[in-house]
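Continuing the series of single-chain predictions for the mutant panel. This is the parent chain; the variants come on the following pages.
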Amino acid sequence: MIELPSQIIFHTIEKSIKEYRRFSQRNLNISNADITVDQALLLFFLNNHSDFSQNKIGALMFKDNASVTRMIDLLIKKNYLKRHINELDRRKFNLKLTAVGQKTLNDFIPVISSNRNIALKGITKNELGQLNNILTKIINNCNPK
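Parent structure:
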């Protein structure tokens, strides 16, 4: 017999992720209604790892290449990113945050920090460690080597 979704851990995991994303988006909208959580995450990755490929960023964000391309194109259109041809390999391009993109990212850092603090309120470091260990075991069980 299959259990009801509300009775299984995967439902709770999925619900917690969706609630956190909605909560985060509401708080980002207060700061700047012109960007999504995923777009802000993309800016964060590019700011900290400008050498990452689009495929690597997509894997980190759990997005396919087409979704990442759409986000990049939109962020360029909104003047958050600039695209430059890679001088070493003209088939590739480099992405760099514009001044507007950098300011937006800087404005979001305290919002993101606050979101995490609120979401994790009352959870000890030990509990977070246990949760991380359990979720890592689930991931490893689903990805046999």
